[in-house]
């Protein structure tokens, strides 16, 4: 034992310098691999500017869908399919929905997905966990679009999801999201930065705070820059329309105003009604209101104010020109929020994935029904549509809903807007 210790001591004494250098190299190598190398060789993050103020639960779906998914998923035509759930059942009156989870699902922290680990906070809905794989939802009233509402991404505490990207570095200011980073297994990173208005988002791009802007309605001023790429797509899940205040403008006036807008002057794809043309319930056989100035009637006697937001001023000016050419006295008013009092409001509307549009057209929805529209027939169709469970029967209801709504003209549907993505070369 002493002999072995003596040999070891002599070895250390003789090669002490080499050993210290080796240990130093090892430590330095460890530090380099764990700390320095990731910084030197990390992929450059894609910094994306988003316009709008969002709380955590309202973060846009196109961000959250990378990080997690819901019990269900919705196709572009509005069809609902299983996602985290393998199947579901509903009782005859549409008030009890039971969802069965897929086997072998795990959260991003490696823990097993159980029914109890999935938390929902719905008003007027009782959530019960029948076993580790079964969740029951008790609704107070029938609601056939309920599976669509469960398509929104779900998370554990800390924004731990189920997808290929992990969320991190979430920062809030005054309860609103300022920044969130998502990273995948290959080390790709996306940093989403949120700005209160479009002008602030544009400024962030100009200053280099972000290198991508999602979802601009108008590419200006970047369409003249030689250092950017611009990608254009049609947003068929949105429409641009003039919402008429039905308390101030009667049916004949609304129809005449709709006929006297030349929709062919817009570059974008025509919108003919409130549903996406991709929807399983879309009705292509509605009154089109093609341009017909001969149907102007007594519009010359009308004093009209067209209210809109800054991004839609160019569209408003084209419409006003049409009306002024017919002798209508009309002015443009620019606002930053939906006004309480207006005659005609030009806006972009996000179309729900389900054809249920109860909130925007039903007479009881005083806050969301911006046309102040009241029609007992439309009310009944909307009530029946969300209570009917059979999709074929639902489709018949919504075909009628679109036909009668367009006949009444509470809004003039114009086009499906473009969405522009601006990226630095």
Description:
The protein has 425 residues and is α+β, with helices and mostly antiparallel strands. 27% of the residues lie in helices and 27% in strands. The protein has 10 helices and 19 strands. The chain has helices at 2-14, 16-41, 61-67, 146-149, 198-207, 251-259, 313-325, 358-361, 376-387, 391-408; strands at 46-51, 72-74, 80-82, 85-90, 96-101, 125-131, 134-139, 165-173, 176-184, 189-195, 212-216, 228-234, 238-244, 269-270, 303-308, 329-334, 344-350, 411-416, 418-424. The protein has a 7-stranded mixed beta sheet, with helices on one face. A 6-stranded mixed beta sheet has the order 14-18-13-17-15-16. Strand 2 and strand 3 (80-82) form a beta hairpin. Helix 9 runs antiparallel to helix 10. The longest helix is centred in the N-terminal third of the chain and has 26 residues, at 16-41. The radius of gyration is 29 Å and the shape is flat. It starts with a helix and ends with a strand. The mean pLDDT is 91.
